[in-house]
């Protein structure tokens, strides 16, 4: 069976998957892939079934933007005994209830010397320089940081940065695109974040990326300061955030009301269905990037949990992200 050639650019660690399936005796397995790599399912299937007899692999076609949503529901529906989640490592705030193997999908095209030179350049003028990255560049970033004598502090997610990053003078983000660069800047400080894109081979400061975003966010927060009717949309699995919702609930005054909804995935139509005219301010608790990336044009303010607490507690002098 044929498959796209770009599948070979990533390390699916087939031998590790096969060993794990063999040692657990798993025959019915759900496979979860990032949307852009779902087309590599036939490659994975043929590689695994050439080494294990009678294995039944099912592809989860639900979107997999993070390991916060390991597809436990899909696994149960097809009677899978285990799940292999490609593209991320385990989410720090959630452990799934079925056996899961996480394969980070290291990108094979990394040029470690080029990365080390760039890290060295951007760390030259500071005392403490930390490097964070995504699952696809974990090994390359660790080695390049060592060569550049920078401190490698681990994985960055859209809603999580390693605690050590907060105390560094400079945070270097090695990742494709702007998503993790913006996340690092929102979680630490735009002034100290520099982003290196190993695919495009470019280097940029985060400040220009987040200045406009922060202006829009503060305007939306200010519109919620006197809001009376709040809607909070919670998520499921690793996006279920009861503690965060409790904090929002306890910050409300006696004249404010909150309703909570829950959804597996949230987009504009989810909110439009619930909110004909009832709510002044909407909070997405599930994934903080939905409010910023997908719903910033919605006609009512849609906030992250951190932004909601800023509005409710009247603390708008320091931007809080994600909660
Ligand atoms: S940013 Fe959103 S999708 Fe990414 S790990 Fe966090 S909750 Fe999950």
Describe this protein's structure.
There is one protein chain. This protein is an alpha/beta fold. The protein folds into 3 domains: 5-105, Diphthamide synthesis DPH1/DPH2 domain 1 (Rossmann fold), CATH 3.40.50; 112-205, Rossmann fold (3-Layer(aba) Sandwich); 214-313, Diphthamide synthesis DPH1/DPH2 domain 3 (Rossmann fold, 3-Layer(aba) Sandwich), CATH 3.40.50.11860. It contains 11 helices and 15 strands. Strand 2, helix 2 and strand 3 (56-59) form a beta-alpha-beta unit. The model has no long low-confidence stretch (mean pLDDT 96). It binds iron/sulfur cluster. Iron/sulfur cluster is lined by residues 65-66, 68, 91, 157-159, 239, 287, 289. The site of iron/sulfur cluster (SF4) has 10 residues, from loops.
Topology (elements, then pairings):
Elements: E1 10-11, H1 14-24, E2 28-32, H2 41-49, E3 56-59, H3 72-77, E4 82-86, E5 100-103, E6 106-107, H4 112-123, E7 129-133, H5 138-147, E8 151-155, E9 170-174, H6 179-187, E10 193-197, E11 202-205, H7 207-224, E12 229-234, H8 242-251, E13 257-262, H9 268-274, E14 281-284, H10 288-294, E15 302-303, H11 305-313
Parallel strand pairs: 2-3, 2-4, 4-5, 7-8, 7-9, 9-10, 12-13, 12-14, 14-15
Antiparallel strand pairs: 1-6, 10-11
Helix pairs in contact: 4-5, 6-7, 7-11, 8-11
């Amino acid at each position: 069976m044929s498959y796209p050639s770009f599948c070979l650019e990533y390390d699916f660690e087939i031998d590790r998957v096969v060993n794990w399936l063999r040692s657990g005796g798993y025959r019915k397995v759900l496979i979860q892939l990032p949307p852009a790599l779902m087309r590599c399912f036939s490659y994975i299937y043929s590689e695994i079934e050439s080494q294990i007899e009678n294995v039944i692999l099912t592809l989860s076609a639900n979107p997999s933007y993070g390991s916060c949503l390991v597809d436990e529901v899909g696994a149960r529906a097809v009677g899978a005994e285990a799940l292999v989640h490609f593209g991320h490592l385990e989410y720090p705030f959630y452990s799934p209830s079925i056996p899961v193997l996480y394969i980070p999908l290291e990108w094979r095209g990394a040029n470690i010397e080029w990365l080390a030179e760039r890290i060295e350049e951007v760390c030259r003028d500071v005392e403490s320089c930390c490097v964070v990255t995504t699952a696809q560049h974990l090994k390359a970033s660790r080695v390049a940081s060592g060569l550049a004598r920078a401190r490698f502090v681990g994985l960055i997610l859209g809603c999580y940065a390693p605690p050590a990053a907060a105390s560094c003078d400079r945070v270097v983000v090695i990742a494709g695109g702007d998503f993790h660069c913006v996340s690092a800047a929102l979680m630490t400080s735009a002034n100290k974040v520099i982003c290196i894109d190993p695919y495009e081979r470019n280097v940029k400061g985060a400040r220009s990326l987040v200045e406009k975003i922060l202006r829009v966010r503060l305007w939306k927060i200010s519109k919620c300061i006197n809001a009376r009717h709040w809607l909070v949309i919670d998520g499921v699995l690793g996006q279920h955030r009861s503690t965060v919702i409790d904090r929002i609930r306890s910050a409300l005054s006696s004249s404010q009301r909150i309703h909570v909804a829950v959804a597996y995935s949230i987009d504009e139509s989810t909110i439009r269905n619930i909110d004909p005219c009832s709510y002044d301010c909407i909070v997405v608790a599930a994934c903080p990037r939905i409010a910023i990336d997908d719903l910033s044009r919605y006609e009512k303010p849609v906030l992250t949990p951190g932004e909601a607490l800023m509005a409710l507690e009247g603390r708008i002098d320091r931007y809080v992200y994600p909660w």
